[in-house]
Hints:
Blueprint: H1 6-14, H2 20-34, E1 41-44, H3 46-61, E2 73-77, H4 104-111, E3 115-120, H5 154-161, E4 167-171, H6 178-184, E5 187-190, E6 211-215, H7 218-228, E7 258-262, H8 272-287, E8 291-295, H9 303-318, H10 339-350, H11 353-366, H12 372-392, E9 408-412, H13 428-432, H14 439-444, E10 448-458, E11 461-470, H15 476-490
Parallel strand pairs: 2-3, 2-4, 7-8, 7-9
Antiparallel strand pairs: 1-3, 4-6, 5-6, 5-10, 9-11, 10-11
Amino acid sequence: xxxxxxxxxxxxxxxRERSAEEVTRAALDAIAARDGGVHxxxxxxxxxxxxxxxxxxxxxxxxxxxxxxxGVPVAxxxxxxLAWGRTTCASRMLEGYESPFNATAxxxxxxxxxxxxxxxxxxxxxxxxSTERSAFGATAxxxxxxxxxxxxxxGSAAAVAAGMVPLALGSxxxxxxxxxxxxxGVVGLKPTYGRVSRYGLVAYASSLDQIGxxxxxxxxxxxxxxxxxxxxxxxxxxxxxxxxxxxxxIETPVEGLVLGVPREARATGVDSSVVRxxxxxxxxFRGLGAKVVEVALPHAEHAIxxxxxxxxxxxxxxxxRFDGVRYGRRADLGPGDELADLYARSxxxxxxxxxxxxxxxxxxxxxxxxxxxxxATAMKARRLIKGDFDAAFGGAGGGDSPSPxxxxxxxxxxxxPAFRAGERLGDPLAMYLEDVFTVxxxxxxxxxxxxxxxxxxxxxxxxxxxMQLVGAAFDEARLLRIARMFxxxxxxxxxTPGG
Length: 499
């Protein structure tokens, strides 16, 4: 029997079959027992978590309806603000930072009865694809400790995969929820840009960032999305669209399902095990009655270049505030040092190598004489990439169209299974190419989900393979039903490390 689901825990706590305190203690015990070899967590909050749990039990005993996540232990990626503990972004720059407020997504989880047990590791400031760029040490893949868990939400993915918590939040700027979900064999959902508030998420690239859940099953992801989604007065980019009942029809198959598979999904550089998993996924969907067609995403080849120009440009602006004066680590000055020395030393000491690299790329792309050549060109490519997706979904109507060309697009989450720790640290381009199938979704602002879809043998280790489904904007309800169809037909969600 695999780890207990968030949905089952909430139901049991609400019916008083289990106490929230009991569930919380079990999660804290699991973290203490299993995290030593994984390092998914940067902090745990035993006292606060148990206080939260007891308060939930008191409300349940009084006959109150606590919420859809009653007593569910959750973890937050450590770039999501919480009004206790620290919010470090896995950086020396924010090593001692204590947020005075809760991120909206975190507050909504707790309002629905969830218990926050800790903060998870990540690539510094969410800049990375392996969770090896944390200032506080790398996270290991629970399936094979010598392999990476993916990134930048690798701590959240590993915590769920190892059965320490049933639900964790991550952030996804170019694949940082889906990619580690794929490499750790869990479900990772990146909602439509604007579906979930970014208030309290420490910004990396503001036009790309989105918060989403990592879970063991599609149903748990559906429940979590229903809790955290919706308009927020603190985030002007959130959509005022009504949040549908994602849970109500999750078990209802999509009739007349049409899936598009991009020609580029089997490109050179995609591991043979991933291609086999894609072919098997196509067979599964055809067996479920779906029509599978080939679609073209002709500008996908420009997605990596466009993404890293746009993301780094926005990062260079967002991270300018961490200068030792307004925010962040403040370096010591010597006799004769000036303000410029304080800025330079504080940022040099506070930021890691990858963050510095991306800031410099961004500053260069926005600099006089290069803006049009780099940033403006990347924004044009971004529009073309979005246009490719619109065409695949049947035009601007997308998911709201009565007969879209495709209901969803199916492709690998990553081009390879989890690679060995340290293997790509010296080759930034090889690391960036890990996100080749995910960055275009962020550039287009679309929803996408990674689901477990197979296993591969790599250097004697059995490692998961993830498949990605991409939907039209704000069409999460249908996208999640499609993902559930696949999950129900395959049972890959039941696979656990060592199970």
